[in-house]
Amino acid sequence: MTSTARASGTSEKAPRPDHLGHIIFITAAAAMGGFLFGYDSSVINGAVEAIRDKYNIGSGTLAQVIAIALIGCAIGAATAGRIADRIGRIRCMQIASVMFTISAIGSALPFALWDLAFWRIIGGFAIGMASVIGPAYIAEVSPPAIRGRLASFQQAAIVLGIAVSQLVNYGILQGANGDQRGKIIGLEAWQLMLGVMVIPAVIYGLLSFTIPESPRFLLSVGRDSDAKAVLADVEGKEVDLDARVTEIKTAMHREHKSVFSDLLGGRFGFLPIVWIGIGLSVFQQLVGINVAFYYSATLWQSVGINPSSSFFYSFTTSIVNIIGTVIAMVFVDRIGRRPLALIGSCGMAVSLALEAWAFSSKHGDTLPNTQGTVALVAAHTFVLFFALSWGVVVWVFLGEMFPNKIRAAALGVAASAQWIANWAITASFPTLADWNLSGTYVIYTCFAVLSIPFVVFFVKETKGKTLEEMG
Predict the structure, then answer these.
(1) Which CATH number is 17-211's, of 3.40.190.10, 3.40.30.80, 1.20.1250.20, 3.40.50.300?
(2) Among the ranges 2-16, 164-178, 343-357, which has the highest mean pLDDT value?
(3) Judging by DSSP bridges, how do beta strands 187-188 and 183-184 pair with one another?
(4) Domain 259-471 has CATH 2.40.10.10
(5) pTM for this one?
(6) I want to staple 121 with a disulfide (CB 3.0 to 4.6 A). Which of 14, 36, 72, 254 is the partner?
(7) Are 97 and 45 in contact (CB under 8 A)?
(8) Are 411 and 402 in contact, with CB atoms under 8 Å apart?
(9) pLDDT > 70? residue 15
(10) Bridge partners, 187 (sequence order)
(11) Rounded to 10 degrees, what is the CA torsion of 412, 418, 420, 423?
């Protein structure tokens, strides 16, 4: 499911303005999977405390219910590629849409805690599928001249989904008079928060019927005439369709299907470059970024901020996340991947240290005014520095740093490591916060600090290099 490389002699003309609008529509429709990825990942933020209260559970059990979706994410990401190669990218999107819809309905109407956990796994599987299918499809249908910009739609859709979920949660809470268990149209507010995802999930499914199948998949199953029609649709009728088909087929035949054994070597099991990819993935999560998206409302309520304000701050954090992502998209090709990563690491380390200091002044369920202000500002700057660096740069690195012969397998291992680290942070935060909230942020600060020498000594710049130069 990799995109087709253009031959050096093939012209890469930008599409006409009228044609560009059609291509953007196709890309945006596919990126709805990314929107749902972000929405479903973070919408649980608004339901955490209500779930704790409704089922009368402790922090350990609560953490497992929140984190269990990540198991589904890992399975969905691991299997999506093979499913898409068998039945097509569009059918995969439609399956993900159905699973998002079922998960939203089931999560909104659970009859027991285990039932809620089950529906979260289903939603996680859909997230995993969307995280793989969207970028692959966009790369395969995008005209080469604007492929990079169109590829950024997926990440933009993810951060937009996060922000919209927090805005919807805030609006629903206002409708329930600030009570997460208050009733609206016969449901508790937290149930409605989880159920609203039905709307974008159905839209995603409907949009999938309006966009063409990937020409790469069509060629792989012998539907050459259909593939030519799609290529003419997305690249223009002036393109030499026979030459493009030959080019894609040649690239497909040359591809090396990397397997796990290709990654082994050296004294420490994996090849050094694979360990570096794993390190990038793990550091991205161990700084605690998903605490900001899964638990921020709970975090602010634990230090004395009322539920309505805590939901509002969750939304403003999501807006900062969008701003940081745009900054990264603008500068990643201008100043390079490593400088952005280092800037982000330094900014995150300072922000997390300030949060740790602020939370050390917690007395009971409140923070002094000064420390409360510092904690809020630091939380926003932490998300900003993450978004403008590691949030985008890690995925760019992982797509570029591996040699061609191991790229697919190495990406799979690195992505798996990322889901595992994500699960570890998500599952451990409630218990760690009960133990010592300030100490928890000291741990995240240490990981941010350690990421600096890791980048300096082990990570090589990939800006301006072709994939072939990676070995």
Answers:
(1) 1.20.1250.20
(2) 343-357
(3) antiparallel
(4) no
(5) 0.82
(6) 72
(7) no
(8) yes
(9) no
(10) 184
(11) -140
